[in-house]
Amino acid sequence: MTHDLVTSLSPLLTAEAAAEAHASGAEPGDLEQAVWLRLLERLEADGPPSDPHRWLRRAVRTEARRTRRATRHERPYETEPAGAAEHDPEQLALAAARHRALRDAVRRLPGRCPRLMEALLSRRDLTYREIAGELGISQGSLGPERSRCLGCLRRLLTPEVAAR
User: Which terminus, N or C, of the chain has the lesser number of Cβ atoms within 10 Å?
Assistant: First the structure.
């Protein structure tokens, strides 16, 4: 009995769900699934409806209205929830690849640029005075040296970024 009911209602449900889905903001498959669930609950509680086709049309419209109401109250995140990207394996892998590419490019820089950039990128968060002391250069020449090194780094990374 249930199998026959499902078989006979399936084409009608597909058509009704497709017709109501766009206006409700739902996917037709989601509406179909919700109505099948309602039908199973109905069969368990009260048995089959006396007019299954009429019941199905009403159930689809009811589900579409419920979805519209829910959609009005739900707001998508403008950004990922705080910390979500930090634990996403794909994002972790991409960040690690970016860091490796940056470190490789820094090692290829000329002169004392690799040491300067390593000091600037250090987790110790060194001040300009500490970096100048570590490199043995004056603090006043650190800014222009940094600019030259960043320019070299930019030229090294541009072809790699464009290739991807």
Answer: C
3-class state of residue 126 by DSSP: coil
Q: State the Cα–Cα distance between residues 123 and 112, nearest whole angstrom.
A: 19
Phi, psi dihedrals of residue 104, rounded to the nearest 5°: -65, -45
Are 31 and 67 within 8 A, CB to CB? yes
Q: Count Cβ atoms within 10 A of the Cβ of residue 157 and give its class: 0-12 exposed, 13-18 middle, 19 or more buried.
A: middle
- Report how far residue 140's alpha carbon sits from residue 57's, in angstroms, rounded to the nearest whole number: 78
Q: What is d(CA 106, CA 99) in angstroms, rounded to the nearest whole number?
A: 10
